[in-house]
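Quick one, T. Sequence first:
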Amino acid sequence: MIKLRNIERCFKTKAGFTYVLRQITLDIAEGEFVTIMGPSGAGKSTLLGILGMYDHSWEGEFQFLEYPVHRLNAKERAMLNKRFVGFVFQQFHLLDDLTVAENLDIPLSYRNIPKSERQALVADVLDRFSIVAKKDLYPSQLSGGQQQLVAVARALIASPKLLLADEPTGNLHTDQGREIMELFKKLNREGTTIVQVTHNEAWAAYGQRIIRLKDGWMEKRET
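Structure tokens:
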């Protein structure tokens, strides 16, 4: 599904250029559950941003579902993102002035999907995630775990082939975190490819392999 070849990312500073990713070469097969780990500043979130096609200022080659991402312009990359990628953030990023159901509808509203079909998809996801009773509530009326559950549901409502998760349990207590990780495991068994970033070794173990970054470099040993 994903082939990265010699991906490099640097930022311009007063002292010159600072590299945050160096010569990243990596393959991720469809249906895998991969964890990216490493200390703060290792380049984990930067790599996730490149995989999600949010970050365009990198060098190297990136194949995604046979699309040569490195040859596409920003608009073409954005279309790939909307069609195939779901993203779960640590901070939830739900819109406070919209209900749960309205938050779930947002990714569908970006596509040419009739309103009646969108309503059916939202109803299906509310039922699938057992949050039907929360559909008319606002994010401020939900616990942290419930907000993250809605955020995961929103990321998956358009049936992405790739789910990216950046510290998805970082703001949750242990029981809530375990609930989210068990949900990821179930989604992966159902065929969703998942790449997560985490500092938590227990949550990392839910993945099939661990890729470790240090100072922007990928360690040779994978676990």
